[in-house]
Design goal:
Largest sheet: 6 strands, antiparallel
Pfam families: Astacin
Cofactor: Zn(2+)
GO molecular function, one term: zinc ion binding
CATH architecture of the largest domain: 3-Layer(aba) Sandwich
Radius of gyration: 22 Å
CATH class of the largest domain: Alpha Beta
CATH topology of the largest domain: Collagenase (Catalytic Domain)
InterPro entries: ConA-like_dom_sf, MAM_dom, MetalloPept_cat_dom_sf, Peptidase_M12A, Peptidase_Metallo
Protein name: Metalloendopeptidase
Helix content: 10-25%
CATH superfamily of the largest domain: Collagenase (Catalytic Domain)
Distance between the termini: 35 Å
């Protein structure tokens, strides 16, 4: 009989000395249900590696990492350890901050991807769900009646005495922030909506800049908080849910119709040929779509020289099992392609590319269409520094 405390007895605790992991040392173990070389085991290890790599960047307190995980053998005497276990009822969950002894981290289908596991680890490290902030009503509205019963405790609002926001602003894009339709009884209606019309909710890909700052503050990674890592400064950030996006259509002249014509179009809903049923951001928003070759999206302004991580999701829709359609990345129109994605799937496929330029540059995202198999892109981000080496 295992302890099930992730929604019935979730404790209200802040990230402070009493419930941080001492010295930032976090041992972990797998239950017998998890094969460490299988899908779950490798996903958990990838999530841990990404958290360690990013949080420990620019550490200024001593020369040792401020946050360190290790796989602890059963024979090792440790006072507390993360215990990764397959959950029940399709629920993912864990307790806030270090628990004595076996600290369960329950995983199931809703968190089967690396970012879902990362969310659970952030909670276990002591962070709370961002939408539980004491000031959350100024930013979002929670529709409790549409939240599945087993998840309702995860939508509770904390008192100021129970949650330290560390002086940081509300973060709509935190990995610990639920999205609009997440955990819904009726998937046609939202569980949470933004009170700010131009703000999307949550993300499914990575820790936000604020998530990283919280961990660096909580675990004493820096002496001077002005040196907190800005790893995820978005030079380009386009989820296509709002008008303020740095990517624009490269408009070409249509000589047949004697007019200028956009090559990419905003689309809502399903892709053809049994593709995704909605956008990558939250399943209900918009994405960019084209059925034309040599269609281009480009950054409107130049990006300074340096090393960047280019991250996007794409989908190639096809009637069959393969296609020669693909998405391409260039630094400007007609320049040499430095990356492309051609994986055919019925789901959104991530593409992460580290790219370095010695002079200012523009990002161009283009299409090669074969056999009328259309292409879509969503959630395009260009961030400072190289992509995590996962």
């Amino acid at each position: 009989m295992f302890r099930r405390c992730y929604h019935n007895c979730m404790e209200r605790r802040v990230v402070k000395l009493a419930n941080r992991w001492p010295r930032g040392e976090v041992p972990y173990r797998f239950s017998s249900e998890i094969n460490e070389t299988g899908v779950w085991g490798t996903t958990i290890k990838a999530a841990i590696t990404e958290i360690e790599e990013i949080v420990n960047t620019n550490v200024t307190v001593g020369n040792e990492p401020c946050l360190r995980f290790w796989q602890s053998p059963d024979s090792e005497p440790v006072k507390s350890y993360l215990y990764f276990h397959i959950g029940v009822d399709g629920v993912c969950g864990t307790d806030h901050g270090m628990m004595p002894g076996r600290h369960f981290v329950f995983l199931d289908d809703p968190c089967r991807h690396k970012s879902g596991v990362m969310r659970m680890i952030l909670i276990a490290l002591g962070l709370q769900y961002e939408h539980g902030r004491p000031d959350r009503d100024s930013y979002v509205t929670v529709h409790t009646d549409n939240v599945r019963k087993e998840y309702r405790a995860m939508y509770d609002k904390f008192n100021s005495s129970d949650m330290d926001v560390l002086g940081l602003p509300y973060d709509f894009e935190s990995l610990t922030h639920f999205s609009v339709y997440e955990n819904a009884n009726n998937s046609l209606h939202p569980t949470m909506t933004s009170n700010w019309t131009d703000s999307s909710l949550g993300n499914k890909d990575r820790m936000s800049n604020t998530d990283v700052k919280k961990l660096q503050i909580a675990y004493g990674c820096v002496n001077d908080t002005t040196k907190l890592l800005n790893r995820y400064h978005d030079v380009v950030g386009c989820s296509f849910q709002r008008s303020s996006c740095q990517l624009t259509n490269y408009v070409q002249y249509d000589y047949h119709n004697n007019q200028y014509q956009n090559q990419w179009h905003t689309r809502v809903g399903a892709m053809p040929y049994n593709g995704p049923t909605g956008d990558n951001s939250n399943g209900r928003g918009t994405y960019q779509y084209t059925s034309l070759s040599d269609a281009w999206l480009k950054t409107g302004s130049y990006i300074p020289p340096g090393t960047y991580c280019i991250h996007l999701h794409y989908c190639i829709a096809t009637r069959g099992n393969s296609s020669f359609s693909r998405v391409q990345l260039k630094t400007r129109h007609n320049n040499v392609v430095f990356a492309e994605g051609h994986y055919v799937s019925k789901a959104w496929t991530p593409l992460n590319v580290t790219h370095t330029e010695t002079s200012q540059w523009q990002l161009w995202i283009g299409s090669v269409i074969s056999n009328s198999d259309p292409l879509a892109v969503d959630d395009v981000f260009v961030t400072s520094n190289a992509c995590p080496s996962i």
